[in-house]
Amino acid sequence: MQKIYISDLKNFIGQEITLKGWLYNKRSSGKVKFIILRDGTGYLQCVYFKGSVTPEVFELCDKVTQESSIEVTGRVKEEPRAVGGFELDGVDLKIISLSQEYPITPKEHGIEFLMDNRHLWLRSSRQVAIMKVRHRIIKAIRDFFDNKGFVLMDSPILTPAACEGTSTLFETEYFDLGKAYLTQSGQLYAEAGALALGKVYTFGPTFRAEKSKTRRHLTEFWMVEPEVAFNDLNDNMDLIEEFIEYVVQTVIADREEELKVLERDLTSLKNCKRPFPRISYDDAVEILKKNNIDFQYGNDLGGTDETIISNQFDRPVLVHRYPQEVKAFYMKRDPENANLALAVDVLAPEGVGEIIGGSQREDNLDLLLERIKEHDLPQEAFEWYLDLRRYGSVPHAGFGLGLERTVGWICGLEHVRETIPFPRMIYRNTP
RNA sequence: UCCGCGAUAGCUCAAUGGUAGAGCAUGCGGCUGUUAACCGCAGGGUUGUAGGUUCGAGUCCUACUCGCGGAGCCA
User: Fold this and answer.
1) pLDDT per residue over A265-279, tens digit each?
2) What Å value separates CA A409 and C1' B64?
3) 3-state DSSP helix/strand/coil percent for chain A, to nearest 5?
4) Which of A180, A197, A239, A272 could form a disulfide with A174 if both were Cys (CB 3.0 to 4.6 A apart)?
5) What contacts A193, CB < 8 A, 6 or more positions away?
6) CATH 3.40.190.10 fits A6-97, yes or no
7) What is the per-residue pLDDT for A2?
8) What's the N-to-C CA distance of chain A in angstroms?
9) Distance from residue A424's CA to nucleotide B27's C1', rounded to whole Å
10) Does the pLDDT of residue A316 top 70, yes or no?
11) What is the mean pLDDT of residues A229-248?
């Protein structure tokens, strides 16, 4: 038998149908019972009148508890008073499994309680909406690169050494080969891919063992990292702009309903069209000074600095050419000023902050060797990476976009912990 | 790691150093159009843990545990 979902109801008006799902909420008014059914595709109010169903069915309406799995049968009609615009005139109700007392009631809860019950919290309408937007963002990201001829080339998750040599990594024993680490970035492998396939992207989980404790940090998060051979910093920024515009515009057009559930004001997101402002690090420092921020030239931009800078603009801003000391060893120096790295960060508006970090890579073997020594990195571990400069090196560039921060921005969420089904944070690895 | 805040009923919270309370949830009753429905009644507590001050501690002090917000670091 063909399964019918709530999202298909417009095709069944006037017909008697059977739907399966869970009881989201119920209300009663003596001789009328209202049961809100959810099935993952939507919500449907089912109405049971005492006069039009058997006494057994009417009694079941009282017995059935929140989140019980149920099967409802009745006639579909349009009903502007009900959620979703449709209503089921119920004739039958079957309980598939009666739920025990459900911990998440239709009232306020604290974040600790909700996080402890994350596996159940995911059933509530807000979380469902977030997961649907997340999925659409992932699809938009993949569509964008696929349509431009990029090849998805996955990078390993277990790696022999730090990619950037700075962050603290999760460590594990790897048979007789000593220690292995959970990757913090697929970028170095993406570079190998770019020199093999021209345009590639990696899209997978990455790990940071930093004891970060802010609304922007997870220990496990997803990152998409495109890498393009023969691209310089400007090409990279062009790609970033086109990419962000595509993802944001596609998602807000295609997930309007979910963003409405999240009460997201779309004004700022609709603004998110090319060209984006591009400012240098020096310009950014000027902005901070004008805002009376005591900022030391040469430092990296902090969270509050980013907020002040991004608040100057009505769409994402690209900040380029940072002091090389605060950036990774593999970034190419600016030929016009060796103190600057050809890096670019993207700061999202509305106080969201950094969502992208990227750069043109150092393609000169000797300079890269110098950088590795300066950063005190073990050269042996990077021999394969250096080979990319020994055998047909080319200018190339790429960037990494943090998926959860992007989801948080588009959904208008305070904290990234709601943007991933099961967040991993410094004080939480359950459920 | 550092700074700040917090822990009381299943959940969210209240309670001048003096008998531990409300809303929601649960159970029972009422209501033929409810929208976190509403109205009435009932059950529900080792106040995070361990010490201390006091005639008396949920409340004051000390330590610990757990969590939350932020900083640093980063996407």
Assistant:
1) 999 999 999 999 999
2) 39
3) 35, 30, 35
4) A180
5) A151, A153, A155, A200, A202, A227
6) no
7) 74
8) 36
9) 39
10) yes
11) 97
